[in-house]
Amino acid sequence: MTDLSSLEFLIHEATINIRRNVLMVAASVCNVALSLIVLGGFVLVVANLQRQAQGLVQQGTITVDLEDSADENALQKQIFSDRRVLRAPFRSKEENLRATCRKYNLPYAELSNAMDNPLPDCFLVSVERPEDIRDVAESLKKLPGVQEVRYGAQVMEKLLVITGVIKKTGLALSILLVFASLAIVHSTIRLTIHARRREIRIMQLVGATNNFIRLPFLLEGVFCGFFGGLIASLVLLLCYTYASAYVDTHLQFLDLVQGPELLAMFGFGVVLSGVLFGIAGSTISLQRYLQTV
Description:
Layout: H1 3-20, H2 22-58, E1 62-66, H3 72-80, E2 85-87, E3 90-91, H4 93-104, H5 108-114, E4 122-127, H6 133-141, E5 146-150, H7 153-194, H8 197-205, H9 210-250, H10 260-286
């Protein structure tokens, strides 16, 4: 047979085998789907936890209080000479007092008339990477005309630690879940292949090569993985879309990972993971049955 006719024959055989073993194939598809729903749901939760922690860190700014004699224009140029600095808006004494009154719900007009403004001019410095906030703050202290530098060191460092823990823990647990999901898929596909072990032996006895025997099972694994991944992708995206709508309506302070392109890539990744799980499960399960007679 030509390569094309061989491929058609193998696809035909895989289709017949799927029809003959509908219940086992359905069980494999369901197991793949459930495994990927757990794995994908965990990935979404970790991604959003990390986004919340990272967002809190990025909101942190460095307040640079100036001396009365400071040259604000020259100082701003020096601040921006550090490439790690993202923004550095200037805030005058009056703006500083207004912001303080708004924050603590104090009467601005009465305070401004009752006493001289004790607050200094300042710059509100934001950095490109949250990890650089400490080093940037230390360098700003050395600039001429700077009276004090404040950035909530203890809170910021704790947030950075939390972000790092979430990232590392999420990665480690994701790897464990991948292996657990693969083990479940492997066990399910192995049961399907075990039920057809005599068929495999007969094919070996009539001279079929291991690759010729393997390919229909791999195609079945791809079938189970694809549809299992498709089901998991649809369930996850529907649930996540509903959760995002609920958060946007009732919990606006939370910033979830969103965007059609990002979710489309996530859905594609879930389907691709299902296909890979199916191929890996079939390949591993077939090894013990492909011994030479």
